[in-house]
Amino acid sequence: MSEVTGLEEILKNMEDKLGQARVNRISNKALKKQGERNKQTVKKYMASYIDSGKTHDLVISSGVKSNPKRVETGWASKERAPIVHLNEFGYTRYGTYVRPRGMGKLQGAADEIQAKAFGEMKSDMEELAK
Questions:
Q1: For 121-130, how does the pLDDT look when each residue is reduced to its tens digit (9 = 90+)?
Q2: CB 28 within 8 A of CB 15
Q3: Global pTM?
Q4: Quick one: DSSP state of residue 60?
Q5: How far apart are CA 32 and CA 116, in angstroms?
């Protein structure tokens, strides 16, 4: 996972200028917005192998969590996790390796999110700080 350098300094400058409560509200709103974008990205990548649609429909984004502040994208039902893992990594059936249609799709979604997230969060925070 990549790490942002200078983030502490940026947040400190924002707190000095806007106050801690407003910075918390701004960062929470930006994180919630990013969580929804992450959810849509995961759904877009999963759409290529929809069968019943249950896994696609159960994608959720968590609320803002702390230490460190973050949002998590996952499935509403914990019963879907084994199915998602089988689709993502493949499995062995009767001695032969099966490569499902969804193999590697979530990694593609994670790569896209990682590439875009920092820029989107930065622009959201700039917009909300005005």
A1: 888 878 877 7
A2: no
A3: 0.78
A4: E
A5: 15
Binned at pLDDT 50, 70 and 90, residue 39 comes out as very high
> Which residue bears the tokens 């509403």?
76
What the block records as the tokens of 34 is 């990013």
Give, to the nearest 10 degrees, the angle between helix 7-18 and helix 20-46. 130
User: Would you mind telling me the total number of residues written for the chain in this entry?
Assistant: 130
> Would you kindly state where each structural domain of the chain is located, as residue ranges?
7-129
| Greatest Cα-to-Cα distance within the chain, rounded to the nearest angstrom | 64
